[in-house]
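Provenance and format

Records in this collection were gathered into a single text stream. Each protein contributes a sequence line and a token line. The two records reproduced below are adjacent in the stream.
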Amino acid sequence: MKFTITIPASLPSMTVKELLEDQLLIPRKIRYFLRTNKHVLVNGESTHWQNLVKPGDSIQLTFDKEDYLEKELPAGQPSLVEELYQDEHLIIVNKPKGMKSHANEPTEVALLNHVSSYVGQTCYVVHRLDKETSGAILFAKNPFVLPILNRLLENKEIAREYWALAQGKFPSKTIVYKDKIGRDRHDRRKRLVDPKKGLYAETHVTRLKDFGKTTLVKCQLKTGRTHQIRVHLAHHGHPIVGDPLYHPQPQGRLMLHAHRLTLTHPFTLETINVEAPSKSFEAEIKRHRSKARNR
């Protein structure tokens, strides 16, 4: 497994050791093998660990099979994958509603399996969407880039924007919910607001369109708790239309869609900004808009 990276102009000069350890987050054991096997080339030549690399330099890394053991997954169906963006290291796809992001059992087949078959190699989950949620979702195409993308996610450098059709009217154009979220001890499938034992969660909500009895809102996650948007909205009296867990009278599909995903590419430092279409979500919004006009 070989990768060639050109150091972007916006990065400062650093030693080879700093590049591999701090920037690329390569584990210590694998760094040792890269060093002893002379599997790091700078501009096509072997290098010392303390040599400086600078913007514009070409870094070639060669990994042995033992460095990153590939996990075998049951085959999926490539035809089920709607690609939104892809390069050598990552892929963003449009997840359909009703499909799990990844399997919970070894023989189960989910979106991860379909994406891996589509790409032709084992991919890795960076973040997940609930089964009934549709929209943009990011996968790493190799284990080398996975911890780097995970760090971007932890540092809140991957922006995720959702659209939700929620019940009722919102009192203001923008609202920030910061209620702590914990497990519901009465129903293992659910989460709830738990001020004492819950984990901090922050959701920024912007009203997009008022349909009278329902409202289309934009939700931006600042944390990534399970069911965060669904719990925050339901707790404040605005359950998402069609939510089978948090709406007292769910009808139709869960009206939550990961509309946009934005990140800075870890190697090129270019901005990747992807929007995901959804015919079923848009059709339901049109229906609510029409009902509001006819009232």
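Adjacent record:
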Amino acid sequence: MSAKKKNISLSISDKKRVIKAVEDGQPKKDVAKQFGILPSTLSMILKNKDRINASDSSVCKKRSRQGEFPCLEECLLKWIRQCRGQNIPIGGFMLKEKAKSFAESLGIEGFGASEGWLSNFKNRHSITFKKICGESASVDSMVCNEWTDKLKELLNGYEPKDIFNTDETGLFYKCLPDRTLTFRNEKCHVI
């Protein structure tokens, strides 16, 4: 008849409430049941109560790690921002090749740009692989306005029945990837 309890993770503020409930005299068994935690979890919370009470619950502390080659990663981040600024799609293979190139230029020996390094680099710098969508960043509006005027001049000598719309014509020799590496909070558009 004993049901297994799920061992859930509590926030710092919930852990502080657990500690207060025990200190106020509530039985540990009742406190564990009230918060839906195992008795062993309650024991760990009470064992670490000094550290929990000293922590600031409004600040989420996350351990940040620095890569083995910070100057290489700084160069790569600048390069990624430049590419994204020009709407150039970037893939994992391209990023690894650029990393090897930078490592060679910086005189870093033994750098392999493995899949593990790429994964950790993306995690450290909040880089994700997103699908490119929309055409809002593809053309400068000034260019469109100038071209509209030129197009009217070009079409003067033609009958309306001889003018066709080629907006969606496929040109596969310029086919670009439909996904790119970009920063998590950044929107990505086609070229």
